């Protein structure tokens, strides 16, 4: 077991007492300022300097250079620390809001703080952050910290552009068009539509909304009041955002029919078809079937081809949520998991998950050309003037449910450009290999570790069974109740100490279990072994 | 008239021909690499280096440092150029997608490109970008380039966090809570709820959705099918996203009643009340009234206090869209424009507009505590485990319509922290002073310039009347048709040359006119004079 470096909270708190004083300069790590000085500016100290010394308030670039150089040096230090696998995921562990209020002065004052205090605050943010890019952060969003994404985000924020019109973001719009076309080609679609959305939940909302519009184009104008009674059918293991979308569009959760998956987490085509028939017998119109490629907890892939044939038979829109598993399309070894995708109507795919692109980057793709404009168009004349001197179909703003839209494409494009098709295939295959290694390791640790199932993808689900539970009847209620408390307690201890993080949850009739997703390319087999040791160390006395 | 520096497109195109060659190293500006070398790394050349030489693929920090230093040097150069008011807004002017496809190789190749080519691409992006931070970019989103926002975005992307749970973003969640509380206090609310959303359109969607839930809490579960017939009443000058929200939630655009504003762009309380009465007589339930603080085109402020009293009388949810004008609350000289805000139910306010915070940062605020959780909660057990060791109300994910959510708060917090309450008051007052200067200048240029109205806020709306139209009857159809083509043609010429950008649009019965919004603190009175000269120069022969 490695020794975890423990930092002293008083370091942080001492700094904070300075931060309230306006007389003593803050104690920034000297190397940050020294490096900044050496590089780009003769100014050694930002104490007393304010935003008025920055561009554009000052026309002199010196302070701007020193300030941004200090920010860069700070993040380089953070990145270097992150690369030390033995460093903690949360320095000093997770704290309460009141404790963070002791460390930070969150309040806004009448007079702004100087740039030294700004830098002090940003350094504190890095010091106290939950380091999701750390190789031993094996929680939701364990995609690591990708340097190409990071570079892209710096450029994106510098150009501070907006996707809504071609005239302000011509290159980014061309880039998005290219990237979405690549993604659709991987789906096996000749044509289609799509957009980058702020997350998978919004992508799924687009899918539900578009399916409704496809079935009932006059709802946009007239509303649902006098429409036929409609329902959606989804797998019970679909992401909860599909139910939220149903609530949002006025369908109501009661009109979402959930089909139980089988033991492997896959919903069966026959069960979907049965529900379609039952709904039809009740005079309900099924306008949407939703299944998943890579379910949230188990990582299961519903049988797309089988269900697509059923949906074609009944002429029902089929949506596949591949927010997590869509990236399986990137390797020839895994793309078969999505067989039949060429026959579906819409597909959610989040590069910010398995492709390690920084949050937020989610694609909603449609196997129907030009459909989004019909669904969402409002033709706001102040923004999408019909008399522009360029082809107005290049303005993407009127096909989205947003108006202004952040540039999410550059980080994806740059990462894909740099890694290439081969690099991403290798990425997916390495993660799968690590998942397999983790699964075998966990299995070998029986009876203290118990796996839930042979992992269909990268998700590895298992229980830790402490010595105290080894001799209790595993079918008893006592066993269930006690086992249910084990994973939360271990996670609490992990987070309080800060050494690592692994997610857990209940599912169906199962008590709380760990779901380890190693989607960070920085995570090594050694880190995986350490994770197993840590769980045992934190859990053996429970 | 200043001389605009014209750059040579062959510089870009020559570079591009290199980019297709795998043999010749790309010609990056030498100062970028030289600076990077001097600062942080002995490596002089990234040619042949790939992402595999970066963290975490390599454990050596050297290449990562050189690479990110080059990115920083690149953006510093961009920022310095931006500060040269005489430089063009779009170097070489706006081009067609095919022309950008000539400059860039958007395609993803089997094998990734090296880091030199990555840097080459990012430099080209900066070279070809439409420089929205430029002092003479007076189009939508003219908020400038804010160094505190930029620094915050670099830190945000480095921590690559997610707002959905406290456990992964504790400090950012505490920060968001503070900032939203400040904003609510400025609204005059003692209590309430809110969240940062991906843009004003989504904020307005939250408002409509929440108002519906407040009136009919069972719609979430049962859907709207058997609910009473409902309508929304909005001003005709409200942002189009309110109608889009109506389409989205299943209400339908037909159930949005639009009230015409008066000549000053303000909707009258009496007209709203009349529509409420008519709707009630028809048996329709009005669940939502939407008005605006700072309309998109004219910048008009609807009389909030008057309309709030009417809504209280009829017990109807009142939403104010202050995406643009909400920031008037920041100065004691303008906050009276929002008198009565203490009585409304919800309020949209985009710091990414008038507060110069980088895109995307929009707040939706509610004058109702804990309301969002009721509206949106789905209690997904895998993410919002009920048995966490901390207070689960700190997890904001279950009150949003997103699941994962980008950290939008740091850029707002850091900018506010650095500028202080006084700094933002001064910011708003300076922009107003510039708007007043612009208005007076435009008025003084009659008969070639004709103002639409005395500006209620920062928006200054006017026509350019070229000499050829001076002697035509201004009430004739010919005059309307010819004048309608003037602003588009002038803007086309501006964009083709790249020197500057000013927005235009039609409104109601008015032919196309310019709407100049100077919300960039970098824009000077001299820039404003240049803008007027440029419009005349581009338009006088039309």
TrEMBL record, chains A, B:
Coiled coil: none annotated. CDD domains: DOPA_deC_like. GO terms for biological process: gamma-aminobutyric acid biosynthetic process. The modification N6-(pyridoxal phosphate)lysine is found at residue 353. Keywords: Decarboxylase, Lyase, Pyridoxal phosphate. It comes from the Eukaryota. Its cofactor is pyridoxal 5'-phosphate. One of its GO terms (cellular component) is cytoplasm. Belongs to the group II decarboxylase family. This is Glutamate decarboxylase. It comes from Didymodactylos carnosus.
């Amino acid at each position: 077991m490695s020794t975890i470096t423990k930092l002293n909270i008083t370091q942080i708190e001492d700094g904070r007492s300075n931060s309230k004083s306006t007389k003593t300069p803050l104690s920034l790590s000297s190397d940050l300022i020294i490096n900044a000085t050496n590089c780009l500016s003769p100014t050694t100290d930002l104490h007393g300097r304010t935003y008025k010394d920055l561009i554009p308030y000052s026309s002199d670039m010196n302070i701007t250079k020193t300030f941004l150089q200090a920010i860069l040096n700070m993040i380089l230090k953070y990145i270097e620390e992150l690369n030390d696998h033995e460093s903690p995921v949360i320095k000093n562990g997770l704290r309460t809001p009141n404790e963070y209020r002791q460390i930070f002065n969150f309040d806004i004052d009448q007079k702004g703080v100087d740039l030294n205090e700004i830098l002090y605050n940003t350094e504190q943010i890095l010091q106290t952050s939950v380091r999701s890019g750390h190789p031993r952060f094996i929680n939701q969003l364990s995609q690591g910290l990708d340097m190409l994404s990071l570079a892209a985000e710096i450029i994106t924020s510098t150009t501070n552009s907006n996707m809504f019109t071609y005239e302000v973001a011509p290159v980014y719009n061309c880039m998005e068009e290219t990237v979405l076309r690549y993604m659709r080609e991987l789906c096996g679609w000749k044509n289609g539509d799509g957009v980058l959305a702020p997350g998978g939940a919004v992508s799924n909302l687009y899918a539900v909304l578009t399916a409704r519009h496809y079935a009932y184009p006059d709802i946009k104008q007239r509303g649902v009041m006098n429409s036929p009674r409609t329902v959606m059918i989804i797998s019970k293991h679909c992401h909860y955002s599909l139910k939220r979308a149903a609530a949002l569009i006025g369908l109501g959760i009661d009109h979402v029919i959930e089909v139980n998956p089988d033991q492997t987490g896959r919903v069966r085509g026959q069960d979907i078809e049965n529900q379609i028939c039952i709904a039809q017998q009740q005079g309900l119109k099924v306008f949407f079937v939703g299944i998943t490629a890579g379910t949230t907890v188990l990582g299961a892939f519903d049988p797309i081809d089988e269900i697509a044939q059923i949906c074609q038979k009944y002429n029902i829109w089929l949506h596949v949520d591949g927010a997590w598993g869509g990236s399986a399309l990137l390797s020839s070894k895994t793309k078969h998991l999505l067989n039949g995708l060429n026959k579906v109507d819409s597909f959610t795919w989040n590069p910010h998950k398995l492709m390690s692109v920084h949050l937020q980057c989610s694609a909603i793709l449609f196997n129907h050309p030009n459909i989004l404009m019909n669904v969402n168009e409002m033709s706001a004349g102040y923004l999408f003037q019909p008399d522009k001197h360029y082809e107005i179909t290049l303005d993407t703003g009127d096909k989205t449910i947003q108006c202004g839209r952040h540039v999410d494409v550059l980080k994806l494009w740059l990462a894909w450009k740099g890694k290439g098709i081969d690099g991403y295939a290798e990425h997916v295959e390495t993660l799968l290999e690590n998942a397999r290694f983790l699964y075998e390791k966990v299995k070998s640790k029986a009876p203290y570790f118990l796996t839930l199932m042979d992992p269909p993808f990268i998700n590895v689900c298992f229980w830790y069974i402490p010595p105290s539970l080894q001799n209790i009847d595993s079918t008893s209620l006592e066993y269930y109740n006690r086992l249910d408390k084990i994973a939360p307690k271990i996670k609490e201890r992990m987070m309080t100490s800060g050494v690592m993080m692994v997610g857990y949850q209940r599912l169906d009739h199962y008590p709380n279990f760990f779901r380890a997703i190693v989607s960070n390319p920085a995570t090594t087999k050694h880190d995986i072994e350490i994770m197993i040791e840590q769980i045992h160390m934190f859990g053996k006395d429970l």
